[in-house]
Amino acid sequence: MPVASRSASSKGAAVDPRHRDPEGKEMRISRLFRAVGRMLTGIVPLLLLAAPIGVHAQTSLKVMTFNVRLPLASDGANSWDNRREFAAQVIARAAPDVIGTQELHKVQGDDLVARLPQYAWFGIDRRGGHADEHMGVFYRRDRLKILDSGNFWLSDTPEVPGSISWGHPYPRMVTWAQFETIRGRRRFYLFNTHLPYRAEDGAARAKGAALLLARIDAIAGKSPVVLTGDFNTTPDTDVHALLTGELRDAWVTARRRVGPAETFHNFTGVADRRIDWILTRGFVARRATTLTDHRGPLQSSDHFPVVAELGWRRARERRVEEKPGGNAVNRPFAPAACIDSRLPVHGQHRECSGRSRLWGKSHNGLPWQTLPS
């Protein structure tokens, strides 16, 4: 009887919830978390594969500045006919996304593109045609596309091709473009220039630098910017101080530097002045390299090319929606209808369509058709 009483009592008694199997509950929670983890492990790769290409955006930009030295028969062994194959090889090995060149003649641009078919180039010469020096801009067609481009002159009348105001002997100009990366659709502006060369042209260089900064502000607004050029002066001058008040010198700020700082060597292979610069805004310079490649006594130019590997700053990664007449920046020319005809660029053709549409005229007010191939 006592046993039966105990049995009946145990069957009818309520169990305190606090005394239920705590170890079993922990095991069930652990199994649940493991199951969720296995599920996420399978799903995440599928989501990445299905994601738009912007997820795999181009994470860096490689920029070159290169004074190619105009083609002069008087250069003898260093004439362009002797250098062009090697110059193309130097560019191919460096594989920049975009190149700002100086002293470029059309024949040189066409020679390089013929040997580097992944590139196209554009620009007009300093007198507004194609018979003189260009500030030619080269870009990788598989990595970048042009959204907008133009030219202006470093003078009191910047819209007038070939204009000179400050006592130097040759016209000085800027060729610029707004680019968008194919992968990730990141946008930036590139400006390319060549300042006066004589020692007595210091005031003209300073005026040109001031005008350049004003135009960068008017054209690019707060967008990321790259400025390439042969500035014909050294970093200890007021020109460098003025420009780096707004922009960063990639050679100075790069986390790693390779090669000599000096860039002009006059075909000797031993440079004595750093006059070729890459200046930026909205980028981080990861690496800067001065390319001293040579083939025996043969040099690619009388200047060493300089390459900067740039990373995008997070605050600058937003994309500005393109609108008729330009982006959010106020343009100094009135918008016009999109030109639907094929727009020639040296090495390829662009078409006016969709988000890559080009509006109106180039920044110097000249029609796009003034850039024939």
Question: Which features would summarize this protein structure in a list?
Answer:
373 residues; alpha+beta; Deoxyribonuclease I, Chain A; 7 helices; 24% strand; globular; disordered N terminus; disordered C terminus
Can you describe this structure?
This protein is globular. It has helices at 2-12, 22-50, 80-94, 106-115, 202-220, 238-243, 250-253; strands spanning 60-67, 98-102, 119-122, 137-140, 144-153, 173-181, 187-194, 225-230, 248-249, 256-258, 276-281, 283-290, 294-295, 298-299, 306-312, 343-345, 348-350. It has a seven-stranded mixed beta sheet. The chain is 25% helix and 24% strand. The chain contains seven helices and 17 strands. It has a domain at 60-316: Endonuclease/exonuclease/phosphatase (Deoxyribonuclease I, Chain A, 4-Layer Sandwich). Helix 3 (80-94) crosses helix 4. The protein is α+β, with helices and mostly antiparallel strands and 373 residues long.
